[in-house]
Please model this.
Amino acid sequence: MRLHRLDITAFGPFGGSQTVDFDELSSAGLFLLHGPTGAGKTSVLDAVCYALYGSVPGVRQSGQGLTLRSDHAAPATRTEVRLELTVAGRRLELTRQPPWERPKKKGGPGTTVDKAQSWLREYDATAGTWKDLSRSHQEIGEEITQLLGMSREQFCQVVLLPQGEFARFLRSDAEARGKLLGRLFDTHRFAEVEKRLAERRRATEAQVRQGDAELLADAHRMQQAAGNAMELPDLAPGEPGLAAEVLGAAAVARSTAREQLAIAHSRLTAAESARAAAERELADVRELARLQQRFAQARERAALLEERADGYRQAQARMERARKAEAVAPALELREAAETEHREAARAEARARDLLPETFAGAGAAGLTAAARRAAEELGGLESARRAEQRLTELGVERAELDRQERADEDVRQEAEAWLAGWDTNRAELRTRIESAQEAAGRAEQLAVRREPAERRLRAARQRDQFAGDTEDAQRQVLALAERAVGARTHWLDLKEQRLNGIAAELAAHLTDGEPCAVCGASEHPAPARKSAEHVDRAAEEQALAAHQHAEEQRTEAERRLGLVREALAAATAEAGDTPTDQLADEVAELERLYEQARRDASWLHPATEELRRAEQEHDRRIGVQQQAALRAASRTTLRDTLDRERASLEEELTQTRGTADSVAARAAQLERQAALLTDAADTARVAEDTAQRLKDADARLADAAFRAGFETPQAAADALLDDTAHRELQRRLDAWQSEEAAVRAVLAETDTAAAAQQAPADPDLAERAANAAERRSRDAASARDAAARRCTELDRLSARSAAGARQLAPLREEYDRVARLAALTAGTSADNERRMRLEAYVLAARLEQVAAAATVRLQRMSSGRYTLVHSDDRAGRGRSGLGLHVVDAWTGRERDTATLSGGETFFASLALALGLADVVTDEAGGVRLDTLFIDEGFGSLDEQTLDEVLDVLDSLRERDRSVGIVSHVADLRRRIHAQLEVVKGRAGSAVRQRGQ
Model:
């Protein structure tokens, strides 16, 4: 890669246009880039990097390129960087323009941002013209990266050598070196290999652990099924040999379970035989015990009957007296009913006489009846007074109703007056609301007229933006089709020229001996032309011509579409103007908002009008209510006077009638109550006299019936009489005694029962305990046999599942062992990796070893053969090895760390390291020659002799046809290096000055 020319406009500190001729500077091989601090030396290198990659190094790239623009540039000047270079034998021109915030056209207020632009052209030496290649940022970036074989970071490290970073590289630890080298040599793929292997190891390990955990879970289930007689392996999930241990323990458990099943079956057979014998013995003993108990119980019942014989005879006598007393029972019931009736009548008479005055205490039934008749006659004379008193009550109700109506009319009148007091204010407010709504309706009509043109402009602006993009696409398509048409035409002309050059061979193919030639007329053809391998026939020429015509037609059609799009763009621009779409959208939105607000305000016109109409109707109604209330008040005054006169007359009449009572009703109530009490007392007196006579008759009939039944007195007959319950109970006792006596005689007469009584007493409890014991032994044996069978079945099932799981897990375990070994080896944790070096570090160590070898060539010259850079893969403390860098001092013969070098030694060591790294990265990039290099600062730390040696090394780079630019403030370099590029700063921005060789 060789730089030829750099043009800078409004970039960084350069306010105007500046040109750097690298061909003139590079002719000397070594040139100096100098200038005061802040003038813009680094900006020249940034411009080169921006032209190639579209961005600048480090933190200086921010704001999407807007910060690259010079603050000294005129507002109408666009920032641009153009670089002409030769790379891979191709002369290219790169032009880049970052985003530009410029004033709006046609003097409009505000600014607008133009998009970033890029161009890539190639010089055609044959035609002597530049040919456009691309205007796509992505395509240009990919093309440059492919040609250079380096990313932007690699380019900044290799071509723009920053000495400060390489000095830090010499003093840094292995981790920092690894980061820099990994970024330069792009070794992240090896780190990805480590990561993928680690992830795969973790994934397979998790699967193996899961499989082992399932095996252990089955082993625990088998141990539970085997009754904890199975020993589990003392291994954790993931450890080798776990599956074999589990399967072996399972086989032992299955064999033991089968032996236990055979033993349990034998025990069950013996237990069932013993249980059957014990059950037969128990049945015999129970039958003997039942017969012996039956005989003993019969003897006990016979003795009990003998003891209760007197009671039985007494019960028979009692039953006989009860049968005689039943003949006297009707007379007893009649006498008891008469006595009860007389007692009730006497109590009723006493209660009625207690309610009468003392004057009637000794009166008989006839006297009480006469007094009741006199009270009824007096009560009949009070009917007229009652009607007068009822009318007086009605007058009070009517007077109260008049008072209530008066209060209601007063409330209505006050409410109407309160409402009418605010009538003028409410009417004024409603009229104001109507006027405001009418004004809003007028505004809505005006805004509706303005809204439609604004919407048309907005639609036109959106079409303008869309047509602008379509125009750019159409332009690119026309350019591509034009290039394709030119290429097709060139191809056709080349084929036509080749056909014309070989037309003789084409004619010779039609020659026949003895026939004249169509060209010369000769009949002899001693040496006809022959077709070569590159011969072009007529069909190939016609095919190329058709391709050329088709390409021309496509170009013409694309130009026609471009014209249509441009016309549409012009029409949309004429309609919308230069106003941005966003601004027009905001204007339309604001008009829409004002229009909707006006419509909402105008929508209150009808409700406000209706409300005013209802308010006027309410005003008229309130006035009418006031007038009606006044008329009703006058009518009530007349009616009240009439009612008062009638009330006075009635009160005078009732005062004479009531007497000492509070009212006529009270006097009538007194007479009614007195007549009722006297009547009741007379009735109860007559009933008491009648019941006394009936009781006397019943006593005479009872005495006669008792005497005829054989009882001395009626009371004796009553005592002998039994009620139904006592009679039934006594008869039940007599029947039970007779039944029991017959049953005892029958039991004592049974032959087998008497024979069983002669034998020894039976012991059923002992026989039952023996039978229960035999039953328990049988159940236990059956449970043991079933448990042993289930244990065998469960162990067989779990063993089969464990064996299947182990077979499925075997390939996964083999894969895990293989992946784990590889992951540990690449991660540097394996015992086979003695230096604990990761895979990426191993690759970087090889690259560092190449860099150290390339740097040593120049370092020995700079240090007069004293120092040599060597790569060290020793471990640093407890860390990992692989990226150590030492320097060998030939004067002492010792190897030491590069951090021990002095300032000047560090400079030329880092310079040698940078140059060596440039060579290695160049080779890594595919052998692309880097004919132009830049070295930034650090020369001030060298003495005069070392400076000469360093410059000799740099000057020797010309042997490889390289040019080296040194960026430095050292004044002695301006004397030693004649080719110079000086950056001068000023108030209007910086400028460059270039000196010759």
Summary: The chain has a mean pLDDT of 77.
